[in-house]
From TrEMBL:
It comes from Apiospora saccharicola. Keywords: Copper, Metal-binding. PANTHER family: TYROSINASE FAMILY MEMBER, TYROSINASE-LIKE PROTEIN TYR-1-RELATED. The keyword Phosphoprotein does not apply. Residues 283-294 form the Tyrosinase copper-binding domain. This is Tyrosinase.
Length: 366
């Protein structure tokens, strides 16, 4: 870790731990979220076991809303699909995903007996080659597996740096997302999620799909990935960019840095199911990816907890674009008093998703 980033992280730790009292969230009971690469093999295996445990538990989502929701992991995918056009490129990106991660962590621990806490994908540490992280350690049972099979055996049939256009439904205007083809595109055949069956999504597709617009109907398939080679050479997910993001002077600049330098790039590197803006939760590594984003936000907040904990900036919808079912509603700014939809009846105020040591949450990133 470069000295410049270490200084920022140390101040964050000093600020968080220095304000803890003797009741509620304390130095003795605060959870420590750590890099996947810093966990021991026993903890990694326990995490993967707990993910499979959720995949084997029945969904709680109303089947009339999402017939393709089969298991507890699908509950999370359904609500992410449902809220995608509100929680991305908006003021809700950070607080919504913070609570979303916490919900998954609670499910792993309380429903499946996971003994540790949510880890993060420490991608800045591996900016020269992301595949060197233990996250992607090929056949290892302590990893999330590797790339998907190439589109054509022997290397693929397209330049991996070329792109395809994907349609994003639900907005009042047509919106197409450019996505690199990457180096895979097929099923993941290594690691502990080789036999994971997905049923919800995909949603972002090369053409409109009026019959399964949001991917709620069952579409059984394997987990796919397509690593983007442009992110294995230090192009974006670097210590320099992480330091720049966390050094932002205000929340608008911080969120702009996350959006422009980190969020989409992390998903794009993974490709496949993990790069669909609506259903990236189908890839279990999603939660490590967003834990890293949550970590960067926590470190930024920790430079001045008093003024930054409840800072917010951004619209109430994706880029401020009206939603398809409310085309005449003008853009408006998100506030900390707004209600967020988290699924299964959980509707917290935005401000409830902002601190990490209050309101039932008690964790620090190491």
């Amino acid at each position: 870790m470069p000295a410049e980033f270490q200084v920022l992280q140390d101040r964050y730790h000093d600020q968080i731990l220095g304000l803890l009292g003797t009741e509620g969230c304390t130095k003795d009971n605060i959870a420590k979220r750590r890099s996947w690469d810093d966990l021991d093999d026993e903890t990694r295996k326990d995490y993967i076991r707990a993910v499979h445990c959720l995949a084997n538990k029945p969904a709680l989502t109303d089947m009339s809303l999402a017939p393709g929701a089969v298991n507890r992991l699908d509950d999370f995918t359904y609500i992410h699909i449902n809220q995608t056009n509100i929680i991305h490129q908006s003021g809700y990106l950070l607080p919504w995903h913070r609570l979303f991660l916490w919900q998954l962590e609670e499910a792993l621990r309380n429903e499946c007996g996971y003994r540790d806490y949510l880890p993060y994908w420490d991608n800045a540490r591996f900016s020269a080659d992301q595949t060197k992280s233990r996250v992607w350690d090929g056949n290892a049972e302590t990893s999330f597996g590797g790339n998907g099979l190439p589109r054509v055996p022997g290397g693929g049939n397209d330049d991996p740096n070329s792109t395809r256009q994907l349609f994003l439904p639900g907005l009042a205007i047509d919106f197409w997302l450019s996505m690199p083809l990457g180096t895979g595109g097929g099923c993941v055949t290594t690691g502990p999620f080789t036999n994971l069956t997905l049923t919800l999504g995909p949603v972002a597709k090369p053409a409109r799909d009026p019959n399964n617009k949001y991917g709620y109907l069952p579409t059984p398939r394997c987990l796919s990935r397509s690593f983007d080679p442009s992110y294995t050479g230090g192009a974006s997910l670097t210590w320099a960019n992480a330091t720049s993001i966390v050094s932002a002077n205000d929340i608008a600049a911080f969120r702009a840095g996350i959006e422009q330098l980190w969020h989409r790039q992390s998903h794009t590197f993974i490709g496949g199911d993990g790069a669909d803006p609506f259903s990236p939760t189908n890839d279990p590594v999603f939660y490590l990816l967003h834990a890293q984003i949550d970590r960067l936000w926590a470190i930024w907040q920790g430079q001045d907890l008093q003024s930054r904990t409840y800072a917010i900036a951004g619209n109430r919808t994706f880029f401020g674009i009206p939603l398809e079912d409310a085309p005449n509603v003008p853009p408006s700014l998100a506030t900390i008093e707004d209600t967020m939809e988290m699924g299964l009846g959980f509707r917290p105020l935005t401000k409830e998703g902002m601190p990490t040591t209050e309101l039932g949450r008690c964790y620090v990133y190491m």
